Task: structure prediction
Amino acid sequence: MSIDETLIAEYLSFAEELAEAAAAVIRPHFRAPLAVEDKGGNLFDPVTVADRDAERIMRTMIQKRYPDHGVFGEEEGRSGGRSPLTWVLDPIDGTRAFITGMPLWGTLIALNDGSRPVLGVMNQPFTGERFIGTPTSARLGTRPLRTRPCERLDEARLMCTTPEMFQTPAQRSAFDDLAARVRLRRFGGDCYAYCMLAAGHVDIVVEAALQPYDVQALIPIIEGAGGIITTWEGGDAQHGGAILACGDPALHPVCMEVLRGAA
Result:
């Protein structure tokens, strides 16, 4: 479905309304006593009332404003609509950081037109930062974002939320091989690492086992800033899985050469 610039502006304005509403729900719970549940799985997968209530308020707003649109959220899954447009929501990306008082988390909001995410918002209400991406640009607040030039692996700064996310020995080995060749490695970050790539502070983000709601909002931010984000095999990143993001497109094939075949 083709969306013109006028509609992009309308939907982006609404996405910012969603971000504000979610922030109002989430903010009182940050660095406050909070019950935490484990959703299960190979890794500790926490969820809190802040996650659930923030997604619920966004879903309610979407249903009221655009009842034909679909919604796909981390906490409540998919709800269909007649329109090909789908809002993809992660109310708190980085819940582990959230429950440990670290500000490396954010609310992710994407609008998918049925073929790709056409706008993305990463809102961090504690720091007051809002990263926004569209097909033509990316910005932090009103400041345009650009990735930094970095063609050489041995000059690159690499981030990954945790090496525990690599699900097979092949994935972990490929990551370790790539990480050994860069200038700087840092762990933690979740969605924040991708935004720092768009802002020109990080050159590579390598992760695995991502869900669509973990990554769709970040795709327009990275691409709008001049970067590239794909699967390890060079495929479409919007469905999640093993993901590679590079600020300098020239660095991307260099990283893929190390990672390809391990996903």
